[in-house]
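User: I'm preparing a small set of examples for a lab meeting where we compare how different chains pack in three dimensions. I only have the primary sequence for this one, and I'd like the structure in token form so I can line it up with the others. Please keep the answer compact; I'll paste it straight into my notes.
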Amino acid sequence: MAGGIGEPMEWLSVLVLIFAFLAPLTVGVPIAVCLGLSAVATMLVSIPLDAALTTAAQRMTTALDSFALLAIPFFILSGNLMNRGGLARRLIDFARALVGMLPGGLAYVNVVAAMLMGAISGSAVAAASAIGSILAPRMRQEGYDRGYAAAVNIAAAPVGLLIPPSNILIVYSLASGGVSIAALFLAGYLPGVLMGLLVMGAAGAIAAIRGYPRAGTTGIMEAARLFARAVPSLLLIVVVIGGIVAGIFTATEAAAVAVVYTLALALIYREVRLRDLPGILRESAVMTAVIMLLIGTSMGMSWIMTYESIPQNAAAAVLGTGNSRMTVLLLINVLLLAVGTFMDMTPAVLIFTPVFLPVARSLGIDPVHFGMIMVYNLCIGLCTPPVGSVLFVGCSVAGTSIAQVIRPLLPLFAAQVAGLILVTYVPAISLWLPRAMGY
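Assistant: Understood. Below is the structure token output for the 439-residue chain.
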């Protein structure tokens, strides 16, 4: 094991790790490759070349040899089937029946539909694309500012990454060393709903000030009909989460059940045909391969960081400053907000969980609670430049530019940060539901 904090070998390892990661990243090398290169380069500080290459390969292989990771391709496939199966339009119609009568009703509809869509598909980008492509033209027709319409869609889309089932929570479970996926799924409900309500409140306030119209009132019979159309899709959440919590099946088995359910639903709706399946399977395979490569290479980096005692010494350095728990959490949040502006969620969770989780544990913070802090924080990063994936998708489907979106996005961003503060300093928001269910 490498020496303690302050010794030359350790600082050399840290510098090599940072340089070998950032240097290729700045010239456009894919982040998964950067992770692998930085891991091998850092190993060479302490280990011969042949041993470093062998160790990196072993760690990548071992990281992917996990039954729990099978849930990720299944949930990806389930989400792609749902996205192609006419789900978005049914959820939008149902959301309109719920909140369309409010001033600026289409903004509320966008948020509610994104919460439902994201929770079912597990993808913020899919939610932004599906909901935005349908609502953006309609909002323009009714006099909504193009930048405001895009901003609402962008801020609402990441909510579904907190509300289960969520692939990023499975990734966090892996990176944290095995925190219960069921507990994480249950913990995500209240933070996810909180983010949605705060974004809805901020969007509604802007809509009221600008005098945007209502989306129309829906009669009881029509609302019941729209609800009935949405029920089969909404039942997926009940089947998956209910089955996990009741102990009927594991998260991986639940993901497989979700695929069977969504495939049957898509075929019944007749919006996915058998000839569409090869394309959907191919798309799902590509998405899965990207995530699995990230996981494999990041586990190599995680191993060498542990070997060099970098997370432990970082925790000791932070705790040695004498800062309070509140201050340390504030520093972690600021750092993660900065990370989220230039790094996607999956690699950020894989890289920084081993660094910050030991600090959180030392402060007595529950790892489930810390997972909610980290995922909520990085959800905000999806909406911020320069590399926010949801930001780019939202601008694209709305036919506007980032410059036009930034100003109306700022109050929605402030609402998200307010929610982050609440989730950080009120642990019950994350922990009440898992504890009530016995986790």
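A couple of notes for your slides: The chain has one domain: 67-439. Residues 67-439 form one domain.

User: Perfect, thanks.
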